[in-house]
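R.M. (postdoc): so does anyone remember the format we settled on? I'll just put the structure tokens first.
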């Protein structure tokens, strides 16, 4: 069993840290809103810290799942940041979806202090976090990965080292790009079926058994048909992720016409007040043009 910290107790981090505690690891949690950290300790066995530095002190692995590059900087760097409390040989295992640039930066900065940094964004959404069934895409070095993986397995169904620093974040960008295209295609197909009067239960039951099958179809078609979006992975977060992807694409001279288009559609959803709607809300633009 390992001594670990978990920084960031949002809809993903809260249950992820819980799985670590349930597996018997010694967990100290930190959250920007202290009351959320206290609430976690009432539900799970573990302790709470008031700063990332305090949480990270003496830990073998520091897990983190916050919002973006800026949030990550705030918990890693500075006199109260995690790096200030971590010892040589410890591992920072970052589950945040952030840029590949910051992953490479923190990998290099960690090396100066004898700290190993692994970028390890996750896929599977809130349900995957709650059920301990996340997919984790990692960038970093083999040795630290091999030490961290058995611990991260507590909240994951698959933890894979893709390549060097930043490779995890690049893979997550690919993941989000695939989702964007699939959701838009699914939205247009369901909208056509609805307008043509097709029995959607039977239609989805049929096509979900063939080549069109996807996680999005299986888990989101009913919400799309019913127009109920107050759950799931927020449009705000998807736009953040697609923005990271588009910036990387511009740097690498990789064309992304479909991603750019779907990102514009999500901007329209935001204009309608759908910032916290699930990403399947793309269909709302078609249902109510």
């Amino acid at each position: 069993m390992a001594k670990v910290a978990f920084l960031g107790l949002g809809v993903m981090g809260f249950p992820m840290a819980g799985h670590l505690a349930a597996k018997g690891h010694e967990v100290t949690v930190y959250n920007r809103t202290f009351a959320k950290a206290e609430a976690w300790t009432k539900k799970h066995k573990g302790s709470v810290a008031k700063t990332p530095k305090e949480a990270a002190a003496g830990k073998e692995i520091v897990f983190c799942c916050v919002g973006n590059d800026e949030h990550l900087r705030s918990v890693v760097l500075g006199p109260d940041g995690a790096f200030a409390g971590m010892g040589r040989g410890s591992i920072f295992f970052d589950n945040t979806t952030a840029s590949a640039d910051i992953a490479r930066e923190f990998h290099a900065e960690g090396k100066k202090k004898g700290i190993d940094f692994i970028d390890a964004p996750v896929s599977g959404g809130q349900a995957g976090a709650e059920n301990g069934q996340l997919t984790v895409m990692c960038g970093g070095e083999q040795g630290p990965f091999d030490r961290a993986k058995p611990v991260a397995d507590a909240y994951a169904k698959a933890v894979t080292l893709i390549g060097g620093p930043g490779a995890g974040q690049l893979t997550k960008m690919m993941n989000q790009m695939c989702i964007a295209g699939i959701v838009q295609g699914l939205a247009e197909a369901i909208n056509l079926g609805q307008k043509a009067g097709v029995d959607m239960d039977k239609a989805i039951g049929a096509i979900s058994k063939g080549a069109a099958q996807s996680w999005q179809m299986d888990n989101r078609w009913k919400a799309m048909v019913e127009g109920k979006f107050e759950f799931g992975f927020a449009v705000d977060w998807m736009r953040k992720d697609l923005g990271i992807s588009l910036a990387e694409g511009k740097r690498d001279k990789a064309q992304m016409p479909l991603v750019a288009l779907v990102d514009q559609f999500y901007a329209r959803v935001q204009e309608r007040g759908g910032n916290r709607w699930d990403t399947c809300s793309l269909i709302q633009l078609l249902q109510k043009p």
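R.M.: ...and that's the designed sequence above, right after the tokens. Also worth knowing: The mean pLDDT is 97. Residues 256 and 264 are 13 Å apart (CA to CA).
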